[in-house]
Amino acid sequence: MTYRVAVVGATGAVGKEMLKVLAERRFPVAEVAAVASAASAGKELSFGDDTVLKVHNLETFDFKGWDIALFSPGAAVSKVHAPRAAAAGCVVIDNTSQFRMEPDVPLVVPEVNGSRIADYRKRGIIANPNCSTIQMVVALKPLHELATIERIVVATYQSVSGAGKEGMDELFDQTKALYVNEDVPPQQFAKRIAFNVIPQIDVFMPDGSTKEEWKMAVETRKILDPEIQVSATCVRVPVFVGHSEAVNVEFAKPITVEEARSVLRKAPGVQVVDDRSSDGYATPVECVGEDATYVSRIRKDPTVPNGLALWIVSDNLRKGAALNAVQIAEELIRVYLKKAA
Ligand SMILES: NC(=O)c1ccc[n+]([C@@H]2O[C@H](COP(=O)([O-])OP(=O)(O)OC[C@H]3O[C@@H](n4cnc5c(N)ncnc54)[C@H](OP(=O)(O)O)[C@@H]3O)[C@@H](O)[C@H]2O)c1
């Protein structure tokens, strides 16, 4: 059984990682199409060790006969083209924020709520959550099952690759320029990102939070439990790849550090690195290219009755985007899209 898979946004940070993950995991492809904007049409991208793909223009790409499309071309583009692909009978797994909160579109992290994939039939679209939400819910789901989470306070330390290839270029160019006393004015970020941190990701909301902070709250509720309260502060930091999160969690029931560590050690997609020494915690640099969500610094939060504090790190381009999308596709073909070769 093999499938025709289109990767839309294939020239971008997430799209390139999608091609890599599809090849690494030997997704059963009959054919792969790389699709991007008209500006990239005809360019070449490699897939696996020996396949070269010519990039197609999304505007003229016909999704008829394609089984699955992994979309990451930005929300405005997905808004137009994801329904067009779905109408042609191609199941869309969309990485943008466009459809995440629509009630008839499932928002899926396979380790957390994989059974929701069944709801793809309503619109032909499955949404991939925000990168910061994904790693947080992977780590918190086992703890929620054990002691029922009531409230989460999270501060994120998000890498520039979360803003795509141009975000990475901006950090690189600014850093180089500063060493020779030159200035590269900010374009992708609100302020200088080199040797700085910026407490703004996405636009401001009427209540003073940012849209990224709002996304973490509403997506966590949609995926994990509508009762959970989330207070997030999202910060861009000068790291190329890998998002980190300092998380304080309040539970309804008592939970010890040992219980948390033990349940996390057995949890799918989670790797506990927690030795309470300088070598005993994860940092983003060590997580690049890895699939797991790393949990470190597990300790009691003594300021609330049933509280824990944690440090959660993951590769935002993999589990935060491409890997999660491919895992959804794997589940989709395993359970729902069985067909002959
Ligand atoms: N980076 C992350 O960690 C992350 C995580 C989760 C979700 N996402 C979401 O995924 C999306 C892409 O992110 P990214 O980081 O990969 O951005 P990126 O590096 O800027 O790549 C954007 C991709 O979209 C394509 N594209 C742009 N406009 C297009 C159009 N009009 N028609 C067709 N293709 C078009 C680009 O093609 P060209 O090269 O031809 O311009 C490129 O392939 C965003 O919505 C982002 O929010 C990103």
Layout of helices and strands:
Elements lengths: L2 E6 L4 H12 L4 E8 L7 E4 L3 E4 L1 E2 L10 E4 L3 H13 L3 E4 L15 H4 L11 E3 L3 H17 L1 E10 L5 H16 L31 H13 L5 E8 L6 E9 L5 H9 L4 E3 L11 H4 L5 E8 L6 E8 L3 H19 L5
Parallel strand pairs: 1-2, 1-6, 2-5, 6-7, 7-8, 9-10, 12-13
Antiparallel strand pairs: 3-4, 9-11, 11-14, 13-14
Bound molecules: NADP nicotinamide-adenine-dinucleotide phosphate (NAP).
The site of NADP nicotinamide-adenine-dinucleotide phosphate has 29 residues, from helix 1, helix 2, helix 5 and helix 9.
What are the key terms here?
globular; 6-stranded parallel β-sheet; 31% helix; binds NADP nicotinamide-adenine-dinucleotide phosphate; single chain; 341 residues; alpha/beta
Structure, briefly:
This protein has 341 residues and is α/β, with parallel strands linked by helices.
